[in-house]
């Protein structure tokens, strides 16, 4: 049997990791700018957690979880999302009762879906969760945080789609109206939707089957069934977004794929990634904390798929970082190797953020072409003559018109730092 990775489980190769680190770094800085604190939870949890949090009649729980019995016969699942674990951890450690928390997380999630571009079985999410705040200003804050993240990544042309699912009461009223509508069109629904019409009719609005999507386009709107309080909250969110200059479009079809949502729900979408066009999605989940056994606490959050963010950055032709060396030190003769090793360490002392590589093996010509191919900015060459003078040659790969420069080793770090800066 040939050993290879599992379908839908990807390696992130060295040529890609700089972009990943960049996205993670920008995310960390953006979360910090809103004073959100990181939480890290296990990848494996009791299956019961996700069943209770996400809901039994959802795609995720019905057919997408990686679940198995462990040696003690306990049913476990790889986490398909981060919110349930955050709430579980918050309850377990007493972080939620009568408190406010602003949290973020990043890491792999697992769903047994059909792999395709932008959809994998192990994928990575960045997520934010805010607990203990019921008013619309926190909805506005978490959405503004997502907007800032997307902007800082350089992404353009994204649409913020907004909806409200109202409170449980509003939804119960709406459920009635929706069920009556679906009853009238039952023959045209796909099989999953036929079943869900009875068990969880809102899920039908979220169907990915085109024929069903066409039908629910004419379904009654939840916004019409909302109470005054629900409406006031939703209007507060829209007002707050508008105050911050964040444009949105109302989309009554957004119900989200997880059952714990109430009130505000939203998605950031693009038309540039085909069917996988949602790069960030979230909403309020005021019922979840109590549903998992805690004292009721309002909450709202979102999650964004890192793979989709990167796909979109590429689709939009953004300038992506790489991890190519800044400087490659090339010994032209065997006796230059040891002194160059010392020079390399001196440069690392003097320029802690520069990427300094020592070239090992091969004739000078081969070393230089290897360095050029690696994307290095400069080569520093030591040959016999230079060595005797306590010097090296600095060669720029980016600026071929600039003549090679002979530099004293003592002044090399200062020189290189200046040129690295200058030539950006
Ligand atoms: P979709 O409608 O695309 O299946 P979802 O509603 O299931 O998404 P959420 O559970 O809200 O997604 O997850 C939040 C984000 O995580 C999505 O908007 C997307 O960017 C990303 N995501 C979800 N599932 C996957 C996956 N299988 N592969 C890659 N990214 C994913
Ligand atoms: Mg999904």
Write the layout of secondary structure elements.
Blueprint: H1 14-33, E1 37-38, E2 44-46, H2 47-54, H3 59-64, E3 67-69, E4 75-78, H4 83-92, E5 101-110, E6 122-131, H5 136-152, E7 159-164, H6 168-184, H7 191-199, H8 202-205, H9 210-216, H10 228-243, E8 249-250, E9 262-269, E10 278-284, H11 288-291, E11 299-305, H12 306-315, E12 327-331, H13 337-350, E13 356-358, H14 364-373, E14 378-382, H15 384-389, E15 391-396, E16 405-408, H16 412-422
Parallel strand pairs: 1-5, 7-8, 12-13, 12-14
Antiparallel strand pairs: 2-4, 3-4, 5-6, 6-11, 7-9, 9-10, 10-11, 14-15, 15-16
The structure holds adenosine-5'-triphosphate and magnesium ion.
Describe what this molecule looks like in 3D:
- The structure is a single chain.
- The protein has 424 residues and is of the alpha+beta class.
- 40% of the residues lie in helices and 20% in strands.
- It contains 16 helices and 16 strands.
- It has an eight-stranded mixed beta sheet. Strands 13-12-14-15-16 form a five-stranded mixed beta sheet, with helices on both faces. It has a three-stranded antiparallel beta sheet with strand order 2-4-3.
- Helix 13 links the parallel strand 12 (327-331) and strand 13.
- Bound molecules: adenosine-5'-triphosphate (ATP) and magnesium ion.
- Residues 59, 257 line the site of magnesium ion.
- The site of adenosine-5'-triphosphate has 19 residues, from strand 6, strand 10, strand 11 and helix 12.
């Amino acid at each position: 049997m040939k050993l290879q990775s599992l379908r839908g489980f990807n390696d992130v190769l060295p040529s890609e990791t700089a972009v990943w680190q960049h996205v993670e770094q920008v995310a960390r800085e953006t979360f910090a700018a809103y004073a959100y604190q990181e939480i890290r939870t296990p990848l494996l949890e009791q299956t019961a957690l996700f069943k209770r949090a996400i809901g039994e009649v959802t795609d995720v729980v019905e057919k997408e979880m990686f679940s198995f019995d462990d040696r003690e016969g306990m049913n476990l699942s790889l986490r398909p999302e981060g919110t349930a674990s955050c709430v579980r951890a918050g309850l377990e450690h007493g972080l939620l009762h009568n408190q406010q928390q602003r949290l973020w997380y990043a890491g792999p999630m697992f769903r047994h879906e059909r792999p395709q571009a932008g959809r994998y079985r192990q994928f990575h999410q960045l997520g934010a969760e805010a607990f203990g705040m019921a008013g619309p200003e926190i909805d506005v804050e978490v959405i503004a945080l997502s907007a800032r993240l997307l902007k800082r990544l350089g992404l353009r042309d994204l649409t913020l789609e907004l909806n409200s699912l109202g409170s449980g009461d509003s939804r119960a009223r709406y459920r009635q109206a929706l069920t009556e509508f679906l009853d009238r069109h039952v023959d045209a629904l796909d099989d999953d939707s036929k079943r869900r019409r009875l068990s969880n009719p809102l899920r039908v609005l979220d169907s990915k089957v085109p024929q069903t999507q066409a039908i629910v386009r004419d379904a009654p709107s939840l916004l019409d069934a909302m109470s005054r309080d629900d409406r006031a909250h939703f209007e507060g969110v829209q007002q707050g977004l508008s105050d911050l200059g964040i444009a949105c479009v109302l989309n009554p079809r957004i119900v989200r794929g997880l059952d714990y949502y109430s009130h505000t729900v939203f998605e950031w979408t693009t038309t540039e990634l085909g069917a996988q066009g949602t790069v960030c999605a979230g909403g309020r989940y005021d019922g979840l904390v109590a549903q998992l056994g805690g004292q009721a606490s309002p909450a709202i959050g979102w999650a964004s798929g890192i793979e989709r963010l990167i796909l979109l950055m590429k689709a939009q032709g953004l300038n992506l970082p790489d991890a190519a060396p800044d400087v490659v030190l090339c010994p032209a003769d065997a006796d230059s190797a040891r002194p160059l090793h010392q020079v390399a360490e001196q440069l690392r002392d003097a320029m802690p953020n520069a990427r300094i590589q020592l070239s090992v093996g091969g004739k000078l010509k081969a070393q230089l072409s290897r360095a050029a191919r690696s994307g290095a900015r400069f080569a520093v060459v030591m040959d016999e003559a230079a060595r005797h003078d306590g010097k090296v040659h600095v060669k720029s790969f980016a600026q071929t018109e600039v003549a090679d420069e002979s530099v004293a080793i003592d002044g090399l770090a200062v020189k290189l730092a200046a040129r690295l800066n200058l030539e950006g």
